[in-house]
Task: structure prediction
Amino acid sequence: QDAAGNSSAVFTTSPNASSTPGIDANAPGVLAAVFSPTTGTLKIADSLTVNITAGEAGLSGSAITVNTRSVLSTLTDLGGGSYRVKYGVVSGDTDIAQSATIPISIVLVDSAGNLSNTFSTSPGATSTPAIDANRPTISGVTFNPTSGSLGIDEALTVTINAGESSLTAGAITINAVDVASTLVDNSDNTYTLTYTVAEGHTAIADNAQIPISIVLIDVAGNSSTAFTTSPVATSAPAIDPSRPTITSVSFSPTTGILTPGETITMTINASEGGLVATAVSLNGVDLTSDLNADGVGIYTVDYTITEGDDDISDAATIPVSVQLEDTSGNTSAEYTTSPLAANSPGIDANSPVVLTATFTPTTGTLKIADTLTVNITADEAEYTGSAIAINGRTITSTLTDLGSGSYRAKYGVVSGDTDIAQSATIPVSIVLLDSAGNVSNSFTTSPIATSTPAIDANRPAITSVAFNPTSGTLGIDDTLMVTINSGEISLIAGAITINAVDVASTLVDNGDNTYALTYVVSQGDAAVADNAQIPISIVLTDAAGNSNTAFTTSPVATSAPAIDPARPTISGVSFSPTSGVLTTGETLTATITASESGLVASAITVNGVDV
Result:
């Protein structure tokens, strides 16, 4: 069109194509983006595939970001308007929660240089995985206990401070020991581990740190960098993973036979000093509390033999059991290797035992000079007597070993021994002695009364004798009553004479410890003057058969009659006058010649007349 408004005819003859540029007047269009996977949680190094649908093929990337990180270089044209990019999660990327979407920004460019509008429509959260792009962090570790020394089977509790909960164990070692299986989530961003010391673990000095290496894993599978910063030595215990060892034990003395009250010293050689007893026994006797340290690695314990301990032959070994413990609480293996018998004493720790004692005879009454046999049963043979008394009198020298634990002793009743009633027991005291010098307890269990004889070990006693009458003169057929004062009843006559005449058959027991005898003067008996004593000899016998020594102390003459056992004799009669015839009123005097003077008339007649 010119200035006047005239328009030219339409010119439609275009230059040929080779002299003409093309025209692309339409920008590419991004239609959709979807993720693969669509669920779950992506961790560091995981990949997210973004499938892009565009309006045409042959496009290339201009600017593409996923989760704010460029993935432009990963664009692949799959043809037919389909494209794909890869997003690899890198540590430090933004975390995306399950309920959130992953931000995207996609700008494609066509061959003409037309740019698509920025596509930022991310798939919905339900079609989107979460992203955990940050490793767990461990800020510190503490120990419990923080001091001391841990021994075998003792535990170290390790507390881990982390930035989140719900972590699980990766590779975790404490003192180079795998403890991952012990991890406990305390649900407060802290975790605990338990390390138990075992024999053979690495020893850690009190001034050294315990090596640690801790890796925790979050729910997405991200692992922390191994945490190796152990608490300083002043906040950590030492570790002693080695048991003490016992190399040998020895005895003193090494020979002989020891009895109760004697002592064996056991010397223990161990691997280290400072040990204490866990369990120490010798011959089955607990000596744990008696251990003494006698130098570095040398310990002693004294065993004093007690009645009832086990006997050990001189040809046998004494059983030992030793366990020692170090300051960390480690105990040695039980040491039971006893010194050889040639280097060990024997032990006789059991005194003889008297089991029973019985008597022979078991009934009746034993008198003076009778014998009681004591039958003794002991626990073994070859004992000797130490002290044996029956009824208070020693009879040790009478002991006879009959073999097989049977023994016999003899008790002979002696005048003056204690009397034993039928209803009582005879006191016994039996102490036996073995070859080692052990003495039995005194056995004092006497047989019961029904199995025990009585003992009458005391002769009857006569304290005095009295006569009746105590004066005058006894003639033929006159009687002297003799009263005997004794200490007991029921005595019988032994040999009894009065004036040398046997009167034993006349003895009467008055039932009050006195007895009566009757002596009748007979012609021919000995005459006893008024100033003389009547000779007596009295022996009484008790029920056991004991007789007193003849009692011969007669009452004094002033308390005794005289005895005249001889009849007077008339040798002749003469008359005066001797002739003539006497008449009434006259007297005949008869002169009688007799054997003695002082006679009196008993019966005299002359010429039939009593004169």
Summary: DSSP finds no helices and 49 strands in the chain.
